[in-house]
Amino acid sequence: MPLETSLIAAAPRRRLLLLAPALLLMGARATASQTWRITVLLEEFRPFSMRGADGQPEGFAVEISRELLGRAGVEAVYEFDSWPRVMQRAREHPNILVPAIVRLPERESQFRWIGQISQRRGMLYRLRSRPDVKLQEVADAKRYLTGVIKDDVSERELLALGLQPGEHLDTSGDYTVLLRKFFAGRVQLVAFNSLLMSAIVESYGYSAQDLEPALAFSSSRPSMALSLRSDEALARRLRQVWEQMRSDGSAAAIANRHSMPLP
Predict the structure, then answer these.
(1) What residues pair up with 24 in beta bridges, in sequence order?
(2) What is the C-alpha separation between 170 and 179, in angstroms, rounded?
(3) How far apart are CA 209 and CA 114, in angstroms?
(4) For the chain, how big is the Rg over CA atoms in Å?
(5) Domains located in the chain, CATH noted
(6) FRET pair for 179, CA 20 to 30 Å: which of 13, 73, 102, 196?
């Protein structure tokens, strides 16, 4: 092949080789500058999430998620909804973060899990005025009606332990209805995370002193989770930032401010 022809044929290849580093750099910059926008779904559930005096979201899970998303460069809007609606929206839509959801075996494949933020101990409570409601084991609860929140972890755990909806379990959409039934005597037991019972009951205008533990039935892991339809790259980024927060002590500092146990 004549030298001139060889040089002409090689020229496009040289141009591609020269352009390759620039193209890689452009790709890296595009990835670094990628902006994710998500919705953080909350329920009224002290001390994890509630509305402050100004109507804005506050609480342990709110502060944890704000720190996490701020560090990760993720734009977010916060919305309150009922727990059944939170679960439904998280199953149906991408880019949904649920900052406080118990990690159960049945939920394992339904979310992109970010990290565990606390600990939970499931407890059945009775009214202090009802010492006749006696439990030695979970099977004894079948003699009574237990109030639970629809789709809450307590409902899922008690179903797995053999209690049946309608026969042993009475479901409510929120704590207002649940506690009204309990204090009116329409259900004899109520299921709570023992770490949060007092805060929840007091926030709805009742006295936690009127309740007493009847039986512990579970322990589990409150966690942050991203909806399954979300980008796995976003989930990886949030997991990285969460580990940084655990390593530098900022996660522990937030937990301490809210008197929450950090695993």
Answers:
(1) none
(2) 12
(3) 36
(4) 25
(5) 37-119+222-257 (3.40.190.10), 120-220 (3.40.190.10)
(6) 102
Residue type, 238: L
- Say which residues have a Cβ less than 8 Å from residue 186's Cβ, sequence separation at least 6: 145, 170
Contact call for residues 114 and 224 (beta carbons, < 8 A): yes
Q: What is the pLDDT of residue 196?
A: 84
d(CA 112, CA 232): 8
> For residue 81, which of 43, 136, 32 has the smallest C-alpha distance?
43
Q: Could you tell me the maximum CA-CA distance found in the chain, to the nearest angstrom?
A: 104
- For residue 223, the cross-strand partners are 101, 116
* Location of structure tokens 């439990």: 135
In this structure, which amino acid lies at residue 207?
Answer: S
Q: What is the DSSP string of 213-226?
A: EEEEEEEE-EEEEE
Q: Which residues contact 167 (CB under 8 A, 6 or more apart)?
A: 142
**CB contact at 8 A, 149 and 187:** no
CB 115 within 8 A of CB 242: yes
The rounded average pLDDT for each run of 10 residues, N- to C-terminus, in the chain (263 residues) is: 45 47 43 76 90 94 98 97 94 97 92 95 96 96 96 91 96 95 98 90 95 94 96 97 97 92 84
Q: Which residues pair with 96 in a beta bridge?
A: 39
- Give CA 131 to chain center in angstroms: 35
* Token pair listed for 114: 């970010």
pLDDT of residue 215: 97
